[in-house]
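Write out this protein's structure.
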Amino acid sequence: QLAHYLEYTYPDHPPVEVLAFHYGHSENTAKQREYFRKAGDAAQRNYANTAALDFYSKLLPLLEDAQEQAQVRWQKGQVLNLLGRWDEAEEDFRAVLGLSEDNLALRADAQFAMGNLTRQRSDFQVALTWLAEAKANRTALADTSGLMHVILETGATFLNMHLAREKGAAESAQVLLEEGLALARQQDDKPSMAYALNHLGSLAGMKGDYATVEVLYQESMAIRRELGDKKGLAVMLGNLGNIAKKQGDFLKARGLYLECSRLFREVGEKRSIAMVLINLGLLTFEQGDYAHAQALCEESLTLFREMGDKQTIAFALMGLGDVLAIQGNYAAARVAFEESLGLGANFSYYPLGRVVLAQGEYALAQTNFEKSLEFSRGTNAKKSIVLSLIGLGHLALVQNNATAAREWFEEALALNKENESKANLAATLLGLGLLALAEKNGEAYPHMLESLRLYQETESRPQQTSSLLGVAGVVFQRGDARRAAQLLGAVETALKALTIVIEPEMFHFHAQLMEKVRTGLGESAFQAAWNEGSQWSLEEAVRFALAEETK
């Protein structure tokens, strides 16, 4: 009786959830079908995902028509996909395919959904196959709107492939996304316009074209605000956070990520929540809060593992490996990098090389640096090429092969002039400074000081400790063992304050220098000078080191 009253009293806007509840306890299956469907659709629109699944699950056994079953299973699969429950979503989408032999449009919907799902799992070739089938069906139907969505999803797939360093993917993504945007503008499909603009902005960001990024993102953001698209706004905030991070505005990036995370949690999109967590983890890593960064990376990794997305699992493992390595937990970092390599993350060769270098496994370090160099050259990832060369140069130094070290470092220096990366240039100059120190020539000091200046400019505090060790080596070689001991003490204090260990490239050099300075001064004098230096802050130590140039 209450249900009848509510329908009569609110004919235009009936309380569908209440009606679904009351009819659910009746024997009126017709009303159950009506209101389970309406309540499920309303819950899905409002991102009440658990409620939507509950209503759709109750509705399905009541449906006799295959087309209705297929439609509801497709909607249920969409909710499961949003929640990152991909195996269950796939089961529903495949059921739709089985139920829609005579409905080409619904079949195309399921093929599109499978393409989207497999893209999120990083099964890109499988995704392209599904999308090609969907495109053929949309073309046969002369469905220009559906065709536009397939083109945009295919462009997004190629964009993800570009992130995975597949050759030619960026060009394909650009063409498809621009084609999709043109179709969206023709059809005045604002959600699709915003989607295309966002992805084109991301592609421009990968090329370093931040002026274009700003224009594209702002247009996409304006459309999504107009539409009240909570999920879309969250995506844009995350992307703007990425740009702020790349530009060094960490405070702005953190604020954007946190707001992005809040919106995604309201929407309940598990994959995006995990992506924000890993981005926050990497940002926190850059800010030097390694314990918090580790916790964020681990939380993100747990979510990605639950979803089974190989690419994002590998990404989270790489971030976690970096956090573990800088704190000196090389055994755990090695496990993380090796697992990420097993998932196809070839950029892990370089950090794994550094870890095994720290562990004294030089042959394995050589193999990993060489594989990193080969992969980086193959994908024309110039910054990664430089890092691989630097790794090989340091390994050659440890093995007393000055000729090879010079070749590696000089090639890195030449590439740095093209890329203008201050951090990579500083690392290269540090390597050349260590080489000059070993050869006892006058290039050591200017290289060390310039490396230190560059690390100071880029606020790379962990790396400043390495350059300070290099300066300590130079002043010791010049005969000032006391100042060298002071700098060694200052470095030790800085490492403790930063909660990190000496960089792998400096392990061998640091151990040798400590022994030389201690022997040169004698234990008592060494300890006194060390204690003096240990009172300095990192900033004071850097200032004192740079002041040595004027003496």
